[in-house]
User: Fold this.
Amino acid sequence: MVIAELFSTEVSENVLAALCLQPEKLICLGSRSVMTDARIAAVRAFFRGRKTSPQLTFLRVGDRDYAGAGAAIRDILAKYPDCRFEMTGGSDLLLAALGTAAAEKPLTMFALDVRQQSLSLLRGSGRDLTPGLFRPLRGITVGEYLRLWGGELAESSYTMATRLPDRLEKDVSDMWRVYIQAPQIWTKQCTILANLCAHSRSTGLTVSANAVEKCARSHIDRLLKAKLISDYSEKGSLVTLTFRDQHVKRTLTRAGDLLELQVFLAARGAPGFFTDAVMGAKINWKGGEYRGGTMNEIDGLLMHGAVPVFVSCKLGSVPKEALYEVDSVAARFGGAYAVRALVCSRLSGSESARKAIRQPAPGA
Assistant:
């Protein structure tokens, strides 16, 4: 099968047809202002990272060269009479030229709905183009999606490939119960434990140091009861304790990690819906049109097929800027299909902050 893809500024649209239908050849046809060198390089890099890849050809026409666009389409049809044209993207000029070509001779045209994950056969026929639901072969991973937008996943706390201890889900549930019993003190207690670890000579699970400030006894008792820590002792200012494991140590010393883990475990537990999940993502604006080495951070980035979900997690008060933080990253790497999500343990903060956050959320 040969597919001619009308190239789009929404870069995920340029690879979906090939992922769904697995053609031997993919011809990308686009105007010069849309099919830039950076976007061509991104598509090539995307397919290089996959086990199966179509033969790629890129044809560019002038932004206002209607005759050139028509000639390019006729040339494709002359070489590949059974070529299917995917027209989800494409400039008005290319769509008009394709319409003229369709009036001159029969050809097959189809479109993909990225959000609904469905295929529409617009004209022609083909048993391999049956309308209905489609799913890209294993979806698009977070790393692949960022690469399409000229970025790179530089660091992450948790990914779908992360090996997690068998009891992590129970530990997270236990830590959440500790949190909800006194949510107003959680952040401070995590900071105190982090300072204790920072001043301890040992970097393992058992830490011991002179504490400038000690955790609230009620908090320590809850952690001991849940067996998240053990061997707790105080001798004057010297505090000693042992964390259950490294995951518990990390979560109890980084206040925001608890909610991020809740979101991650929920996404990981729904593999049929979320095809990939990354938490604590650091994204490098690398390659493409952005070469300054700028780094962006996002609490979570989930993939639902080819639709990215940018997640901001707020444990405690939620400032007005919370929505702008997630929007800034989604605007750069998300495109038109991006979903922005704010996950918070409670909608606290000032009334003006609550109003600002509720306003963009339908039904809130």
User: Anything to note?
Assistant: The CA atoms of residues 172 and 258 lie 7 Å apart.
